[in-house]
Amino acid sequence: MKAFIAAAAAALFVVGTGPVHAAKKPQPTPTLYQGKPNEDAAKALLEVALVQSGKNGSWERIGAGRVYYLGGFKAEGQAVFDAILAGEHEDSDVYRIARVYAEAGEWARAKPLFDKFLAGNRDDAKALAEVGAHYLMQGDRATAERMFEQAFKLSDDDPWVTENVAGAYLGVKPQE
């Protein structure tokens, strides 16, 4: 799917700007979005964004996948996530994808990715507070409070940690 999206974006680019500029990365132009239905405009722009991201832009590709996924094109977003996770990737990629699932209200998908990230990053106070907040909002207060305790042991003077924990008790989702 990733190859198809990249090929489609490249073809769109060549057709839209001519072969003289084919070596350059595509850029968004008004022809991609002006006068088009919202979904078509978004898809055309996301195809360009994926090509702009290149092979090594996992955070950027996750960003495009997030827009696909949350924008109603789950299969396209999932294809982006699957391609990233199937290859060599950073722990932070797992974390960012888990955040998308959490934002989509899909705790069953987010939880194992969050847990995987935390297993390798036990000293990340912000992540412990954020993931703990998600646990609390899912009704698992005991696990959440263990994570909060660990987060505060690691960093008792970080307002972001404290704010995420406080927010969780009020049902406020953690801020990225």
Relevant terms:
176 residues; mainly alpha; Serine Threonine Protein Phosphatase 5, Tetratricopeptide repeat; 2 domains; 10 helices; 0% strand; TPR_rpt; Tetratricopeptide repeat protein; signal; TPR-like_helical_dom_sf
Quick summary of this structure?
The chain has 176 residues and is mainly α. Helices cover 72% and strands 0% of the residues.
Protein architecture, described:
By secondary structure, the chain is mostly helical. The protein folds into two domains: 1-89, no CATH class; 90-176, Alpha Horseshoe (Serine Threonine Protein Phosphatase 5, Tetratricopeptide repeat), CATH 1.25.40. It is built from ten helices and no strands. The protein has helices at 2-17, 30-33, 38-53, 58-70, 74-86, 91-103, 107-120, 125-137, 141-154, 159-169. Helix 6 runs antiparallel to helix 7 (107-120) and helix 7 (107-120) packs antiparallel against helix 8 (125-137). It is elongated and about 50 Å long.
State the oligomer: single chain
Report the C-alpha radius of gyration, rounded.
19 Å
> Which of globular, elongated, flat, extended, rod-shaped describes the shape?
elongated
From the N-terminal CA to the C-terminal CA, the straight-line distance is 28 Å
Report the count of strand segments.
Answer: 0
Number of domains: 2
The share of residues in extended strands comes to under 5%
Helix content: over 70%
Topology pattern, helix = H, strand = E: HHHHHHHHHH
Largest sheet: none
Total helices: the number is 10
* Structural class label: mainly alpha
pLDDT below 50 for ≥5 consecutive residues: which ranges? 1-22
Mean pLDDT comes to: 88
Signal peptide: 1-22
Keywords: Signal, TPR repeat
Protein name: Tetratricopeptide repeat protein
TPR repeats: 125-158
